[in-house]
Write a sequence for this structure.
């Protein structure tokens, strides 16, 4: 009877989880914007203006990393610290909030689904959530700490002790939170050939993008066969995308003089790995994103749309969402009614949910791209790239961000927000009041011809 | 017991409908390519070469309309007649074949679905099919005839009696079959301000793209309320897309000096209507496609992907496919398990089929675009536009077609074919032997987190 009790408590508190998440995020972004709008936040002691403060705050809270001004050049130390705190709260908060909301929203769908979900993950009592949140916070700081120590071995010799430590902490947090903000002014380009920096950043980003349910499962079960279906899918899809991206980028960019062409063979391998990882959804780069060939840029856009895994610091529609759709398509081709994988069956409601996430996401990207095509002077590729990067909270750009018009800045701000909160969450938050309790009456079935 | 008997007969004949359709199309394209490769097919009396003959034949049979050479300039009268016959056979054949295959493939999915489908459309005995095919052929020639007479009222005064009649017949067939081939050398641009030509072409294209099941339903029932759910969805979605396209194109192109800007107000209205219709999937144009603004070009690409309605001469993933997905997304947002519309419920299997069509289509477009990005020298917008135009059998181009490399020509040929036959049909044709009869055992259900 615990689930019913939780529901009652939530009803008593009058919290709608979708609306709570949306409002919470807006509040955090506005606080950040107010702080960054202060004159002391800027290096030159003058206020940046509210639109750019809002853009930067939204980019940090939504762990996107798109920037209208260079982080080290424009912002004072105070400004940089505000940005780092926004990243950490946005990243951590989303992880813990995502935990909360995925449970609470999941519940709203059907009582049955809710019960199954709680049964499976078997820690979703209110007490369990507190414990879980502690686990998330401790593991985050541990991983970020290890990352910072590894980075400091390269940053201290280069930047000196104080700056080196500050850079190590900033970039470790920015990487684990999949934020993509940097203090070098040129992302990780200066370290394109550096094995330790490359592998540390890549590991932090990937771990941050797997999601806490996956760590718990791996720590507990330690054998692929024993993992939950969710963990299996996350690991397999993540690995497949990394390998696929690595191969495509190595091939398409190998002779591009603006990107891999100018690196050593070791650098080519490292940069291919880095740029296979970064669209999902780190936002760092070691070669110039605007110089990527069309095919590599197109693959990057698709990877940015897919993003990382649920309940993690990564954005995008998520690996499992795309995986569920892929499995459903495969089932149709094989003529099966059940969507099956690893000797398990995915419920239809899950495929529908995945379809809604992808469908709303695409609709949003098309809408924003069409408006930006009117307001901005740039190529279709650059505009679409920018929009998907914002939606996926990636932060890669082909150079459009600093040149965006005011309308463009506001539109990208909204897109980052929508991408981070999740299009479905926003839809739930808005559609809430229309949702009715289901009656027992069902309309008669009628078929149409499709395809 | 009729359905079982049909199945037996088909099994006796060892026809697999998906494979039959694929092989039939390939045979027709190869016959066309052989004829067009003859020296007498070219105006200059020299063979065009097999790759271009194949491209043109595939473009005609698949009623696409992409051309590597100008139809009136390059081809002799013999060549033009071959092209027209290929268009008519391709268009008609697809209509009748689509009838056959949608029934036969539909059957393969489940016995229950098959029975429901046959029950609903209640004419799918072998005798009924013959009758239906007759109906399709007669109605096609009637509509094309009326179209040709209307066009001749403008073409005879301009081109003289013989050429005027030939032009009227050619363009009426090309329009009704959604082929988009023209003999003016500049599509319908010379008639951008001509009300009769505009409305005749627009009507022919729209009627051709509705599909025979819709005509039958309209002729029989004559009242929206009595129409089948399929007819209702086709009519509503077609109307919504036409109005939406009209408004967006009128707004985005109004002041573009290369497109609407140079037309009178009447011309602007006509051209907006025309270019709202043509991406779905006529392929004619009255203003230069390559000069469209990015937003109008993006909308055009989306409309090309959607295309017309099932069992028609139009291409794309089809209106009802997109409609089914839209309704499914809407159901998720409203928190409903059933996908409902017009007091009817769409079966889950139908949504999954729609998802497969769109998913495979997108995958194909991404794959082809990435390869073309390597083999061709052109912008991302132009390459993506060309690929979607080929997949949707539209025939609009931003100028890339005549400049395609040999690999590019072959790849676009394959894409036109895949788009016309339908990605799912090809998948069925290949996956066939792997499909098993369903057992009674089902895997246990397990949930994952998506989105
Ligand atoms: K990011
Ligand atoms: K066409």
């Amino acid at each position: 009877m615990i689930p019913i009790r939780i529901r009652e408590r939530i009803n008593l508190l009058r919290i709608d989880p979708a609306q709570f998440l949306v409002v919470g995020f807006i509040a955090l972004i506005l606080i950040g914007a107010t702080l960054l709008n202060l004159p002391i936040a800027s290096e030159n002691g003058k206020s940046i203006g509210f639109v750019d403060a809002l853009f930067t705050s939204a980019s940090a809270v939504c762990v996107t990393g798109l920037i209208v001004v260079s982080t080290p050049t424009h912002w004072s130390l105070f400004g940089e610290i505000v940005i780092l705190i926004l990243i950490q709260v946005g990243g951590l908060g989303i992880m813990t909030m995502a935990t909360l909301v995925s449970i609470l929203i999941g519940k709203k769908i059907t009582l049955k689904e809710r019960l199954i979900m709680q049964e499976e993950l078997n820690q979703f009592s209110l007490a369990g959530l507190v414990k879980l949140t502690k686990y998330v916070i401790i593991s985050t700081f541990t991983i970020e700490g290890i990352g910072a120590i590894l980075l400091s071995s390269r940053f201290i010799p280069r930047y000196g002790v104080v700056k080196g430590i500050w850079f190590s902490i900033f970039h470790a947090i920015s990487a684990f939170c999949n934020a993509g903000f940097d203090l070098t002014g040129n992302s990780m380009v200066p370290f394109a050939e550096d094995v330790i920096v490359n592998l540390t950043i890549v590991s932090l980003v990937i771990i941050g993008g797997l999601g806490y349910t996956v760590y718990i499962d791996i720590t507990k079960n330690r054998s692929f066969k024993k993992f939950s279906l969710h963990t299996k899918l996350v690991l397999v899809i993540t690995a497949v995308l990394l390998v696929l991206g690595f191969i495509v980028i190595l091939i398409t960019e190998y002779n591009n003089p603006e990107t891999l062409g100018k690196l050593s063979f070791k650098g080519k391998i490292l940069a291919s790995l880095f740029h296979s990882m970064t669209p999902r959804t780190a936002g760092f780069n070691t070669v110039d994103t605007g110089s990527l060939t069309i095919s590599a840029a197109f693959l990057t856009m698709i990877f940015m749309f897919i993003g990382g895994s649920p309940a993690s610091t990564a954005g995008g529609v998520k690996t499992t969402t795309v995986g569920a759709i892929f499995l459903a398509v495969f089932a149709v081709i094989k003529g099966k009614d059940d969507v099956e994988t690893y000797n398990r069956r995915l419920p239809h409601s899950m495929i529908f949910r995945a379809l809604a996430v992808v469908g709303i996401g695409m609709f949003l990207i098309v809408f924003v791209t069409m408006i930006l095509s009117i307001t901005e002077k740039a190529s279709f590729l650059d505009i679409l790239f920018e929009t998907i990067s914002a939606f996926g909270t990636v932060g890669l750009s082909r150079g459009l961000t600093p040149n965006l018009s005011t309308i463009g800045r506001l539109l990208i701000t909204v897109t980052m927000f929508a991408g981070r909160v999740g299009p479905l969450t926003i839809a739930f938050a808005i559609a809430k009041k229309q949702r009715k309790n289901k009656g027992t009456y069902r309309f008669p079935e009628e078929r149409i011809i499709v395809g």
Q: What stands out?
A: The beta strands of chain B are 339-341, 344-346. Chain B touches chain A through 89 residues (CB under 8 Å). Confidence is low (pLDDT under 50) at residues 1-13, 107-124, 433-437 of chain B. The first helix of chain B runs from residue 2 to 13.
